[in-house]
């Protein structure tokens, strides 16, 4: 395969304007070391695009992204979008248009960050397109309803297809790791919905006889993540449970700045997206922790490397991995939320310097 990739850059809002450029800089430096050629395509998205293009998600962006191998999506501050035409939350559109049904969210400890645990290494794979936020184009009439002024009905969609494909994505990851997968659900109460999810997980398990499967009920999982997070390796769960458990897991290793993510599907395109939001309270101060965004971008490069069999991309990801760990080991090159003394730029510089030392 040719060592050439086209990657979109969507800065998003608030701290996105600081951490996405940091992530791009780190990937650029690693790619330069391995001879990986990346064609970067910055695109308008978010509040700044509302001024320049009349929409937070300008027309043409989807079409442009279709021609790419992947993209980096910064956090979107959609809660702060003005109530005007053109203020659109791009998340659901992007996830559904590119069929990014699996949200891969690793939780990894690094020593010295003042986190609750120093020895966690697990991955939560969260279903990304169904649950309480299903695709309204596919599931007619789904979402929330208010039949009377005093009552709301929220509908959760679980399908065999949605469940089996996220399960397969999780099994594939488990196979590359410790060959253990935990299915998290609540089929004791949601007998039909979670019941179907669990059934599909076991159906897919037959394709992966070398992976050991166990089940944990979601409330027990919330407790066990605190008590014995080391006993988990790969976890698969439905949309909302996954959303909550990944923030909980992030809290154990240093907070939201330590929570990266990659959205993948069956298609050839993947999206790097940190778990955290746009953190308007700390935006523009140069103090945002860029780890989650940089690591999300590294995951994208690694995924593309494996998916397209591009050795230079796999090697670039390995170089980034080592440099990120080196920067995190030094208080001067990590941010204050993880017991550092530096800012966003110091941490980014620390990672870039660590790469230079290695070469
Ligand atoms: P969303 O609804 O978009 O998920 P949220 O309300 O969950 O947003 P976030 O923007 O994720 O909120 O952030 C919550 C708080 O966590 C922020 O106010 C900020 O203090 C902290 N935080 C989030 N991301 C980072 C980061 N990268 N570095 C440092 N602190 C962060
Ligand atoms: Mg949040």
From TrEMBL:
The lineage of its organism: Bacteria, Pseudomonadati, Pseudomonadota, Alphaproteobacteria, Hyphomicrobiales. It comes from Mesorhizobium denitrificans. The keyword Kinase does not apply. Belongs to the isocitrate and isopropylmalate dehydrogenases family. The keyword Oxidoreductase applies. One of its GO terms (biological process) is tricarboxylic acid cycle. One of its GO terms (molecular function) is isocitrate dehydrogenase (NAD+) activity. Keywords: Oxidoreductase. Pfam families: Iso_dh (PF00180). This is Isocitrate/isopropylmalate dehydrogenase family protein. Residues 6-351 form the Isopropylmalate dehydrogenase-like domain.
């Amino acid at each position: 395969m040719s060592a050439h990739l086209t990657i979109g850059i969507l800065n998003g809002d608030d701290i996105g304007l600081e951490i996405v450029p940091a992530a791009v800089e780190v990937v650029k430096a690693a790619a330069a070391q391995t001879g990986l050629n990346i064609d970067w395509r910055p695109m308008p998205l978010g509040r700044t695009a509302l001024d320049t293009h009349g929409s937070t998600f300008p027309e043409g962006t989807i079409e442009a992204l279709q021609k790419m191998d992947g993209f980096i999506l910064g956090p979107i501050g959609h809660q702060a979008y003005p109530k005007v035409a053109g203020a659109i939350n791009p998340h659901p559109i992007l996830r559904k248009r590119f069929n990014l049904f699996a949200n891969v969210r690793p939780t990894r400890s690094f020593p010295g960050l003042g986190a609750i645990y120093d020895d966690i290494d697990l991955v939560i794979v969260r279903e990304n397109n169904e649950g309480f936020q299903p695709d309204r184009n596919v599931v007619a009439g789904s979402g929330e309803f208010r039949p009377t002024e005093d009552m709301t009905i929220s509908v959760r969609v679980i399908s065999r297809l949605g469940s089996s494909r996220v399960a397969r994505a999780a099994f594939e990851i488990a196979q590359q790791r410790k060959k253990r997968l935990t299915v998290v659900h609540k089929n004791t109460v949601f007998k039909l919905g979670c019941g179907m999810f669990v059934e599909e997980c076991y159906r897919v398990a037959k394709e992966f006889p070398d992976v050991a499967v166990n089940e944990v009920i979601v409330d027990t999982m919330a407790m066990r993540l605190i008590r014995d997070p080391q006993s988990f390796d790969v976890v698969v769960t439905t949309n909302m449970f996954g959303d909550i458990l990944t923030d909980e897991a992030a809290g154990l290793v240093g907070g939201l700045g330590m929570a990266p993510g990659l959205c993948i599907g069956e298609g050839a395109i993947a999206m790097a997206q940190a778990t955290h939001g746009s953190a308007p309270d700390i935006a523009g101060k140069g103090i945002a922790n860029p780890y989650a965004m940089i690591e999300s971008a590294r995951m994208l490069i690694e995924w593309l490397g494996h998916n397209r069999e591009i050795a230079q991309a796999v090697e670039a990801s390995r170089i980034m991995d080592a440099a990120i760990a080196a920067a995190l080991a030094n208080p001067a090159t990590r941010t204050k939320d993880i017991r550092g003394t530096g800012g966003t730029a110091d941490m980014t510089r620390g990672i870039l310097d660590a790469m230079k030392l290695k070469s």
